[in-house]
């Protein structure tokens, strides 16, 4: 199931997709595009907001604070082979005896599994799902912060989690991202989750970014940084030429792992 098939109702799925793409749409626009009455749109918005799929506003609807996380289980099935290839490339990049920040997401969970053959890693993560994977290696020291637990993705958020992260200096940060703009801006969907990512970025010596090809064409609302801060970008397909050129100018290492590539492009 994809993000365009969240509800099983084609009109509701289309409404979610429109709002997710634009960030905010008013009722009249939605009624025209969906070819229904404004009353129907209002009912749809009310129902979908109650399900947490969009945010209800006066006169319109906006993207849910974490519409991607709403479909976390569906995303686990998306681009699995590509994510595994990215995960293995990042795992190869991480030396033993490193201190590593790891964030929330389906891609980083694949990376966590790929790290299991390493030894003597210290891992600080705000993902209970990542911690559940990694704690089974008895040579790892796995630490999680206190805070508020998100039931949809196992993420831990909140001021206490940010403070916990700020007490460390990691050799590497492993993180995914909601979207990458052509100017290198890194975007996320949830302001609460992004505050922890930004803290981890500030307290890391090297930032390793995992982003499958869909991130080059996605849209998100919360800026967390720019590719100029990134040490290496790991992806399954070359980015659009303007972004690829920018990465070269910023001296960001680009590692492309795909079924069509014989070896990673450095």
TrEMBL record:
<dbReference type="InterPro" id="IPR018356">
    <property type="entry name" value="Tscrpt_reg_HTH_DeoR_CS"/>
</dbReference>
<keyword id="KW-0238">DNA-binding</keyword>
<dbReference type="GO" id="GO:0003700">
    <property type="term" value="F:DNA-binding transcription factor activity"/>
</dbReference>
<dbReference type="InterPro" id="IPR037171">
    <property type="entry name" value="NagB/RpiA_transferase-like"/>
</dbReference>
<dbReference type="InterPro" id="IPR036388">
    <property type="entry name" value="WH-like_DNA-bd_sf"/>
</dbReference>
<keyword id="KW-0805">Transcription regulation</keyword>
<dbReference type="InterPro" id="IPR001034">
    <property type="entry name" value="DeoR_HTH"/>
</dbReference>
<dbReference type="InterPro" id="IPR036390">
    <property type="entry name" value="WH_DNA-bd_sf"/>
</dbReference>
<dbReference type="InterPro" id="IPR014036">
    <property type="entry name" value="DeoR-like_C"/>
</dbReference>
<keyword id="KW-0804">Transcription</keyword>
<dbReference type="InterPro" id="IPR050313">
    <property type="entry name" value="Carb_Metab_HTH_regulators"/>
</dbReference>
<protein>
    <submittedName>
        <fullName>DeoR family transcriptional regulator</fullName>
    </submittedName>
</protein>
<dbReference type="Pfam" id="PF00455">
    <property type="entry name" value="DeoRC"/>
</dbReference>
<feature type="domain" description="HTH deoR-type">
    <location>
        <begin position="8"/>
        <end position="63"/>
    </location>
</feature>
<dbReference type="Pfam" id="PF08220">
    <property type="entry name" value="HTH_DeoR"/>
</dbReference>
<dbReference type="GO" id="GO:0003677">
    <property type="term" value="F:DNA binding"/>
</dbReference>
């Amino acid at each position: 199931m994809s993000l365009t098939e969240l509800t099983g109702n084609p009109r509701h799925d289309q409404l979610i997709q429109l709002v997710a793409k634009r960030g905010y749409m008013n009722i009249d626009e939605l009624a025209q595009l969906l070819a229904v009455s404004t009353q129907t749109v209002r009912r749809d918005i009310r129902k979908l907001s109650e399900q947490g799929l969009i945010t209800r506003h006066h006169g319109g609807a906006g993207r849910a604070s974490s519409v991607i996380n709403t479909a976390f289980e569906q995303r686990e099935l998306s681009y699995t082979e590509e994510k595994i290839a990215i995960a293995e490339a990042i795992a190869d990049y991480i030396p033993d005896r490193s201190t590593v920040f790891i964030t929330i997401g389906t891609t980083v969970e694949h990376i966590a599994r790929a790290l299991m053959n390493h030894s003597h890693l210290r891992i600080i993560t705000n993902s209970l799902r990542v911690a559940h994977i990694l704690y089974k290696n008895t040579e790892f020291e796995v630490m999680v912060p206190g805070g508020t637990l998100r039931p949809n993705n196992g993420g831990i958020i909140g001021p206490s989690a940010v403070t916990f992260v700020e007490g460390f200096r990691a050799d590497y940060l492993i993180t995914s991202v909601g979207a990458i703009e052509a100017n290198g801006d890194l975007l996320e969907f949830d302001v609460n989750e992004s505050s922890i990512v930004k803290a981890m970025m500030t307290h890391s010596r090297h930032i390793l970014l995992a982003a499958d090809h869909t991130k080059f064409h996605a849209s998100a609302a919360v800026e967390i940084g720019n590719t100029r801060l990134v040490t290496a970008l790991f992806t399954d397909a070359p980015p659009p030429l303007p972004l690829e050129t920018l990465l070269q100018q910023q001296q960001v290492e680009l590692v492309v792992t795909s079924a069509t590539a014989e070896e990673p492009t450095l």
